[in-house]
Amino acid sequence: MTTAAPPPVIVLVRPQLGENIGKAARAMLNFGLTELRLVTPRDGWPNPDAGPASAGADIVLAEARVFDSLADAVADCTTIYATTVRRRGVMKPVLTPEAAAKEVHASAGRSAYVFGAERSGLETDDVTLAHKIVTVPINPAFASLNLAQAVILLAYEWSKGVALASPPEVPLDPPAPHAEMEELIGHLVRDLDASGYFFPPERTEMTLRTLRTALTKTGWSYNDIRMMHGIITSLGRNPRAR
Amino acid sequence: MTTAAPPPVIVLVRPQLGENIGKAARAMLNFGLTELRLVTPRDGWPNPDAGPASAGADIVLAEARVFDSLADAVADCTTIYATTVRRRGVMKPVLTPEAAAKEVHASAGRSAYVFGAERSGLETDDVTLAHKIVTVPINPAFASLNLAQAVILLAYEWSKGVALASPPEVPLDPPAPHAEMEELIGHLVRDLDASGYFFPPERTEMTLRTLRTALTKTGWSYNDIRMMHGIITSLGRNPRAR
């Protein structure tokens, strides 16, 4: 018997109003999503404004987990979708909610849908961390989608695939959970830094982003990442370059 | 050249709060719907609470028309869809928002999506007047869809059939030609070999194969590969590892 892909996690990054967190929880539960993660909510957590706005989706709020960073919040996820209505200077595949939902159902691992703050949306660094971008195709002359609306559209599209319960295609060597990739990036950046790679210093931020984007799209498995750790360590011992 | 079917009219029957009318207008305009009709709104029309809640969808509110009955409101429509989450004692075809949208696009005439009051929904007589029922498939354990959410889901599904719903084309950094990847693998293998990575020798062939598989699936662009050459060279200069 095949196991269906787990439902996506909903991650709200720096949400401002408790009311909007409650509305997002309501939107989730309407379509069967229950796992909510919050990254540094502005007014702390729990937030007394969330409950009334959730219209009874208390279980989602009660089980919400809070994280200090997006990387921590998605550490156990294999595919991370950044939701944004705006084009970013980040080269990532852009999917519709429909296409993303199909991928999520076909995935062997756990996926995360990541939403930014109400006013500002996701920061570029948040988008860089993600594998793909989900954009709701919207009226270009009036693009005014609030947080709960964005959540409901993604949850709704995901829910369409539940009834079908089609067996997911399991890749032979599935992508590793996100935490593995973070660790690899950390290792590489430390060694590159020690080798004088980041020069001039003012370009470091941009270089790190480009590096992260290149590594994020690799689809590397746990075993691939183990190998890359070995490669980074070994290259540092290269006598030729001394 | 065929003429596209006209966009559906959104009809709110006995809406209670101006705020919800505004939110419905916002949901409509987000997905390109502009024609709003109101049947005996509880607090009259115009309603000062509608504008602020519309988030700028003023044109929809300004052009909204008020009717005394649902029959009048849909007098010029050929197919009327009653939206309801509950089964009624009325024998009508029940469609998903997706199926209804396809019908609307295929129709020669004008269609109407009819929504009931916030608390009570549509009366049986309203449903009887309609040709078909549209029901959003929702979590049976938590069915708490508000008016604006129902409107946005139907508007969103409709929008998929029009030009604005085409996924945005984002120029991605395309994968590099194969020769670039060969050159990168050559560079990496030379430096790894110099660093003593391939040990024991009898496993070299297998290790090279695993390495090639991991690098081949990266989808790296020309620029990514340039960066990786720099990384390999730089890591070899790592003073920490000496």
Oligomer: homodimer
CATH fold type of the largest domain in chain A? Alpha/beta knot
CATH superfamily of the largest domain in chain A: SPOUT methyltransferase, trefoil knot domain
Number of domains of chain A: 2
Question: Beta-strand level of the residues of chain A, as a percent range?
Answer: 5-15%
Characterize the largest beta sheet of chain A: strand count, sense, and whether it forms a barrel.
Answer: 7 strands, parallel
Which structural category do the helix and sheet elements of chain A fall into? alpha/beta
Kindly report the spatial arrangement of strands forming the biggest sheet of chain A: 3-2-1-6-4-7-5
**What's the pLDDT, averaged over the residues of chain A?**
90
What is the overall shape of chain A? globular
Chains forming the largest contact: A-B, 69 and 66 residues
CATH class of the largest domain in chain A: Alpha Beta
Low-confidence stretches of chain A: 164-170
